[in-house]
Amino acid sequence: MPALLSCRWRVLALGLALALLAQAAASADPTSFARVIKDVQPKMVKIYGAGGYKGLEPYQSGFLISGEGHILTVWSYVLDTDVVTVVLDDGRKFNAKLVGADPRLEIAVLKINAADLPHFDLAHAAVAEEGAKVLAFSNLFGVAVGEEHTSVLHGIVAAKSRLEARRGAFDTPYTGSVYIVDAVVNNPGAAGGALTNHKGELLGILGKELRDARNNTWLNYAIPAAELLNSVDDIRAGKTVRTDNPQVRKPKDAMSLSLLGLVLVPNVLERTPPFVDEVRPGSPAAAAGVKADDLILFVGDHLTQSCKAFQTELEMIDRADSVPLTLMRDRELIQATIKVPPEN
């Protein structure tokens, strides 16, 4: 009997030791969800800005793409304010500056004054195939306002598709490749979050809310990082925003709204979006196809976020030159070039 008990204790001790070893191995496994989530959370940020109008949410998600505080997020009304607050995973809060945006991809890059931050490297992002396990990190439902972690959802890549094949069903200017995700990532505040694989490697950015106009179903998707890289590099290089340069002089005979034949909506706020209120009949703008209610996004490659910014851009263009515009009309991106006839 003593020998039998001794044998049982040995078996029990061996089983306990194996269980402890398995637990240790799991905790050391770089692909375990707990380890991946712990590594990714410090790269995520919560973004708070404009909102409240007609029930619009004042928050969204983003993630760090440089150690110097560059943040990738979606381009939306949330950023249409002078004060955009970014909250890091450790609870630190910063006022963010908009570096630039690309409405064609519906992305924006923000910058906070910080250093040595954990971040994703867009240039070394991963690629996923259909059926791959993924994690979606986001400021889901706006519950993370301090040092709380962002929300995490587990799912798979249900399909890889192009949104242009879904035109007429989904209302978006983006027509490139997407990951269709089998997880509910289309929620208020989730836009701008990060989609990673099971190793925590960045796959893409969670897209804005999209609803099928035919059956009211929502599309859960992410834009692959490879689709974003060139645009983000251009934004960070300053190619989509005008930098103030005192050495640049305004032309003597500058362009103006009256010359173009445009009337914008009343500039009642500091950053009233440059919507076209009226196009004068027979004007250069009418000849170029500009219409009332068009939203002016770009003059050339310079982003115009307000009526004031648009008029400032016009003041830098000589009357003899053409005015290339990127407009948004019913969620479609329209290119128009306005040419003012020479004076007699």
Quickly list its features.
alpha+beta, six-stranded antiparallel β-barrel, 344 residues
Report on this structure.
The protein is α+β, with helices and mostly antiparallel strands and 344 residues long. It has helices spanning 2-28, 33-40, 225-236, 257-260, 284-287, 307-315; strands at residues 44-48, 59-64, 70-74, 84-88, 93-102, 107-111, 133-138, 151-162, 177-181, 194-197, 202-206, 210-211, 218-219, 221-224, 262-264, 276-279, 295-299, 302-303, 323-329, 332-338. The strands form 5 sheets. The chain has a 6-stranded antiparallel barrel. The protein has a 6-stranded antiparallel barrel with strand order 7-8-9-14-11-10. The protein has a 4-stranded antiparallel beta sheet with strand order 18-17-19-20. The longest helix is centred in the first third of the chain and has 27 residues, at 2-28. The radius of gyration is 25 Å and the shape is elongated.
What is the subunit organization of this protein?
Answer: single chain
Largest sheet: 6 strands, antiparallel, barrel
Please bin the fraction of helical residues: 10-25%
Content-based structural category? alpha+beta
Shape: elongated
Put simply, the count of helices is 6
User: Poorly predicted ranges (pLDDT <50, ≥5 residues)?
Assistant: 1-9, 11-19, 165-170, 241-247
How do the SSEs run, as a string of H and E? HHEEEEEEEEEEEEEEHHEEHEEHEE
Roughly what is the average pLDDT, rounded to an integer?
A: 81
Please count the beta strands (DSSP E, at least 2 residues each): 20
Q: How far from one another are the termini?
A: 117 Å
Share of residues in strands: 25-35%
**Spatial order of strands in the largest sheet:** 1-2-3-6-5-4
Q: Mind telling me the C-alpha Rg?
A: 25 Å
